[in-house]
Amino acid sequence: MTHNERHKCDRKHYRVITRNVSHSAFNGYKERYSKYSTIICLKCGHCWRSKASYVPDTPNYSREEEANYNRGESIDPKET
Ligand SMILES: [Zn+2]
């Protein structure tokens, strides 16, 4: 099963947390290049790894958005 089969939020909610970086216990959690980026959905909080074609078009997760998300302001209560 792929991510897209389970997650239906619009891509406008997607942000890239770490772009093309792999964190692995096998290398002591040092950052190294990966085909995969870590994506978060600001709408539902879902987080996943992806190398899909939409990743280069997805904006980075900014510090302002992170602060808003931590206060719960990015999630619309009407849609939950
Ligand atoms: Zn979502």
What does this structure look like?
This protein is an alpha+beta fold and 80 residues long. It has one domain. The chain is 15% helix and 25% strand. It is built from two helices and five strands. It has helices at 3-6, 63-70; strands at 14-18, 21-23, 31-33, 37-41, 47-50. A three-stranded antiparallel beta sheet has the order 1-4-5, with no helix packed on it. The protein has a two-stranded antiparallel sheet with strand order 2-3. The protein is globular. The two termini are 24 Å apart. It binds zinc ion. The site of zinc ion has 7 residues, from loops.
Q: How many domains?
A: 1
Give the assembly state of these chains.
single chain
User: Which of globular, elongated, flat, extended, rod-shaped describes the shape?
Assistant: globular
- Radius of gyration (CA) equals 14 Å
Largest sheet: 3 strands, antiparallel
Strand content of the residues, in percent? 25-35%
| SS class | alpha+beta
Task: Give the number of helices.
Answer: 2
Distance between the termini: 24 Å
Low-confidence stretches: none
Average pLDDT metric: 81
Helix content percent band: 10-25%
Number of strands: 5
Strand and helix order: HEEEEEH
Strand order of the largest sheet: 1-4-5
| Distinct ligands, ions and cofactors found in the model | zinc ion
